[in-house]
Amino acid sequence: MSETQPPMRVAILPVTPLQQNCSLIWCTATMKGALVDPGGDLDKLKAALAKTGVTLEKVLVTHGHLDHCGMAGELAKELGVPIEGPHEEDRFWIAQLDDDGPRWNMEAHSFEPDRWLDNGDQVTVGDLTLDVYHCPGHTPGHVVFHHAPSHFAMVGDVLFQGSIGRTDFPRGDLQTLLDSITGRLWPLGAETTFVPGHGPISTFGDERRSNPFVGDAALA
User: Fold this and answer.
1) How far apart are CA 217 and CA 58, in angstroms?
2) What is the Cα–Cα distance from 59 to 84, expressed in whole angstroms?
3) DSSP-H helix ranges across 36-127
4) pTM over cut 0.90
5) Average pLDDT, stretch 29-49?
6) In the 8-state DSSP scheme, what is residue 119?
7) What is the 3-state secondary structure (H, E, C) of 148-201?
């Protein structure tokens, strides 16, 4: 007998010179998918869609930094799909993408999401339902996407393996970030695997045990 197909599959596609983890997630029942944080390298992302046979249904954005969403508007326009996220508190970041691109020697364009997201919202991808958690601190409008049945989250630049997001950007705040992680991510469960915005995947349990910034021992 063949193994039961999981409801969701994920491919991690590092993009831009900053090697930002863009995630292609898709519903295995419908083969409809979403690209989470398509910051650049659109040819690479379209090739991944072709290779997997996934039909892109929407673009999801965790926050307004250019390596995460600099090319989200161009991709959505080209493929005729909507953009959902981030929280509207990141509107000022998205509004300055046209200026930030040359500053970082990257292509980036401002856009207007079709839907701003708030804590407690849900987004659908095919038959999948993802819960939205507003997790400010790195940016004021940062959101996290969580698929509870898969014990899986995409956390952008809130949390990393062995580290946390920077808080020295405009409207970043360290205590707010720590509160977002401990108050909104840890309750999702130690077994939850997460894809960070950069670097390797980890679990919330591993970070609680060993993260030098936000682990239980560090905050004790």
Assistant:
1) 39
2) 6
3) 42-52, 66-69, 72-79, 91-95, 97-104
4) yes
5) 98
6) T
7) HHHCEEEEECCEECCEECCCCCCCCCHHHHHHHHHHHHHHHCCCCEEEECCCCC
